[in-house]
Amino acid sequence: MKPQAVKGTHDVLPDEQPLWRHLLAAVELELSRAGARRLTTPVFEYSEVFDKSVGDSADLVVQKEMYSFEDRGGRQLTLRPEFTAGVLRAFIEHGMHTLPRPVKLWSAGPLFRAENVQRGRYRQFHQINLEIVGLPQALADAEAVQLLYRVLHRSGLRRHHVRLGSVGDPQDRAAYNAYLREQLAPKVEALSETSRRRLELNPMRVLDSKADQDQALLVGLKRPIDFLGEGARAHLDEVRGYLDAWGVPYEIDPAIVRGLDYYRRTAFEVHFEGIGAQSALGGGGRYDGLIERLGGPPLPGVGWAVGIERVFDALAQEGVAPVDEDRPALFLVPLDEPAVLEVTRLAIALRDHVRVEHSYQPRNPGKGLKEADRSGAAFAGLRGGSEREQGVLQVKHLASGEQAPVAEGELLRYLLERR
Question: Which of 202, 245, 290, 317 is the most exposed, having the fewest neighbouring CB atoms within 10 Å of its CB?
Fold first, then answer.
């Protein structure tokens, strides 16, 4: 059988790498200018890190979406299904609470969930993540939203928009969950199987259902924003004030919820209406209390995550196709056997300054130029007996066809002047 990648995973091929570099460069530029520093955590943690953070009612637990296993020492480990828990574990372990606040940390890399595979949903997928730790004020929430919007804008998106809401404080959430249970209990048999489980464990998550039958039963019911207490409502109003002042476009989504139990107050998502029904690119919110639950000091936090594969889908809809700036500047073609050593020696010298590739055996000019063209190089340099006698290479600009003899000592300057 032909070898294949595991279902729900995919290879990032060389031709796709320029898009990855483009996005990560945009992320690093935008976030570093805002004072965020990159943190790389292991792809697996002790399972208790996620057990403490995600909560018993999260889909990751209820639907057994986490990849957990026992290692040879009998330790329970889990491939990270999300970034926040591992980032905060590192924050606690390395004493980052002593740093000036807020502490801003960003991460990027693969995550793992045993999900049903569909467009934009994979079992190994990739996210960009930001955490802002140490400030309870609404200003931190607003900055998180603004940075998510700006990161996507810098990457090339223009048709993305923010949906803003609030899941309230714990008591607000409890009140709304009790209301939903009361309203939906008489109709429980009409709910989807997933929503029946959610109604029992975390009723607010029923609002997240994509099943038409569930959405029909929710028509006319109150939303989480209707149950906000005075503190949570004032907090949301402050967030809105900052976003209005900064010119960040958003709309209020009364039904917005978060999939993990640790969120409170501000919740937000960014959507792009060109990639099908699952239009969310990412989202996040405030998670005061989570650091303490993981064994750290009682510090507040707010953060977000955005799906890299989903952003790529949106960039394709926008027509953003980064040029591979790492293509060869020069492809050297030896026309005889002695020229093989000559071009390899020249390539090694030039690689201190530019990318250079070459043929590995003598070629005739026609075949050599075809090979140079397939490499994506801007120029081809041909070397044979007559060029050797003159101490030059015949250098051809592959796009225009312009060709000229160039002395070996002048070759680098010639290339740099015509980049």
Answer: 245
